[in-house]
Amino acid sequence: MLRIACPYCGERDQVEFTYGGDAASGFPALADADLDRWTDAVFIRDNPRGEHRELWQHQHGCRQWLYVVRDTVTHAIQSVVPARDASPAAGADGR
Amino acid sequence: MTHYSAFTLIRKALGANRGWTRAWRNAEPRAGYDFVIVGGGGHGLATAYYLAKEHGAASVAVIEKGYIGGGNTGRNTTIVRSNYMIDGNTRFYEKSLQLWEEMSGELNFNVMLSQRGQLNTCHSPAQMDAAARRGNIMRMNGIDAELLTREEVRRRVPILDFSDHARFPILGALWQQRAGVARHDAVAWGYARGADRHGVDIIQGCEVKGFLQEQGRIVGVRTTRGDIRAQKVGLAVAGHTSHVARMAGLRLPIETHLLQAFATEPVKPMLHCVVSFGAAHFYVSQDDKGGLVMGSDLDGYNSYGQRGDLPIVEETMADAKALIPLLSRLRVVRQWSGVMDMTMDGSPIISKSPIDGLYIDGGWCYGGFKATPASGWCFAHTLAKDRPHELNERFTLDRFRRGHQLDEKGGGPTPWAH
Ligand SMILES: Cc1cc2nc3c(=O)[nH]c(=O)nc-3n(C[C@H](O)[C@H](O)[C@H](O)COP(=O)(O)OP(=O)(O)OC[C@H]3O[C@@H](n4cnc5c(N)ncnc54)[C@H](O)[C@@H]3O)c2cc1C
Ligand SMILES: [Zn+2]
Fold first, then answer.
1. Are strands B146-149 and B282-286 parallel, antiparallel or unpaired?
2. Largest distance between two CA atoms of chain A
3. Are A44 and B253 within 8 A, CB to CB?
4. Which of A72, B127, B193, B386 is the most exposed place for a label (fewest CB within 10 A)?
């Protein structure tokens, strides 16, 4: 069982959270009509074997979106911060 | 090489079973080949087999980092079926099932295909409608399908929960008689032996660490046992496709996820077909040793870990008990997992890559065992002829860019939830 340290609620079991996928892929600006950039954002992933930046929502807790750095081989979690503080790609709704 | 038959069995038995020869050579890598297939699972071995046999390729190697069949081929729950609905999938999986039906004879190796039938249970009127629609589409494509009523399901599998307090009452089911299970290791061994007989080198304990590139073209692979040159390199590394393709500078529409499987202690025959639970993503069959083999959802977060986590153990057992209450009295004696390529639309990729000399067979999600023969058949064709077979022409890499996804479930690009 992963234990995710929510910055608001403390360390909780993974089953309280919903996975939101790769956090590295932010969407282009809505006015941007470039097909390649949109294909890349929607469908293409780095899918690293090792350090992965990803989103989780504390669904059964504070309902905040979190930005988690986790290793995809060992599953060890390096850091958890609120998604809105984490990266320009991840907005308040986790996208 | 020994031809296997009842006669050979008797003759060898009389000779105290001495003198059996190796089923395939353990080859040393040569300096170069026409075709190098990376990954010695069922798909890679089948590809090499059909390349040599159907396309007359004289110089083919399969390179496997561990031992053949040690990946998902040897870890899956062995369900074989062709109940697909979308154009592009239907005929491909039906071709695969037809190749399964001939496989033991074709390879002179018993893959123990058991066409015991598969039930997909329905638990609401809407699910019955969806099953009828799927069944009709299958039949229009010449694939067998039958819609069963609650009573017909009960006659076939009385141990399902037909009680008044069933959590998910069973209204009926979609039945495919020709579906079933097969012996997974035997598929890898049978194709390996067949490929070897046609001159393919099977090189185990040899990991691909990078690619040889010249003028933007892939001309071979770097391995833990030295460089191996190749006219064409084909990837069949299920679960590791992104990881290996990255070494050539490619990013793919794939995420790698965990799937677990479970087996109970052996009991007398009690489940005579494969059952898939329509109320959850759960499936179960009884293997020839008597154990019930079960699986359910993905673990749900990106992982290359090859070991499953507890939440899915709980979910699978809850599903099992909701569908077949008496399973709660059995002990689970084994649990394992594999890592799989989950594509953004849930359908596979058999395609040339944007880099010359590199070809990709991957993205099999949790359904690639049944695809093994057709995947090898189509990938061999694509490699040999430099264009897809008509059965895999929709499994391209660029379908995502063109908006031609093959999303059987209509789930969208959320591969962890497929
Ligand atoms: C638990 C579980 C249950 C499943 N149940 C079913 C089912 O019921 N029905 C069904 O149809 N499908 C099922 N599947 C899916 C199915 O097992 C796979 O899609 C299929 O076996 C893939 O075959 P393959 O030959 O491509 O992969 P594999 O057998 O995994 O072969 C890939 C090989 O590539 C090798 N490799 C990887 N990287 C390198 C490298 N760098 N260099 C050299 N070699 C490398 C690996 O060691 C491996 O042996 C299941 C999968 C799992 C994990
Ligand atoms: Zn919280």
1. unpaired
2. 42
3. yes
4. B386
Q: Which residues pair with A65 in a beta bridge?
A: A57
User: Is B303 in CB contact (< 8 Å) with chain A?
Assistant: yes
Closest ligand by atom to B365 CA: 1
Residue recorded with tokens 């023969």: B373
ipTM: 0.92
Closest CA to B317 of B235, B260, B256, B400: B260
Q: How do residues B225-282 score in pLDDT, each as one tens digit?
A: 999 999 999 999 999 999 999 999 999 999 999 999 999 999 999 999 999 999 999 9
pLDDT of residue A90: 45
- Kindly state the average pLDDT of the residues B2-13: 93
Burial B253-288 (b: 16+ CB within 10 A, else e): bbbbbbbbbbbbeeeeeebebbbbbbbbbbbbbbbe
Q: Provide the CATH number for the domain formed by A3-85 in this structure.
A: 3.30.2270.10
Pocket test for ligand 1, best of B111, B211, B237, B359 (most atoms within 8 A of CB): B237
Distance from residue A12's CA to the centre of ligand 2 (Å): 8
The domains located in chain B, with CATH, are 25-109+183-253+345-402 (3.50.50.60), 118-180+256-343 (3.30.9.10)
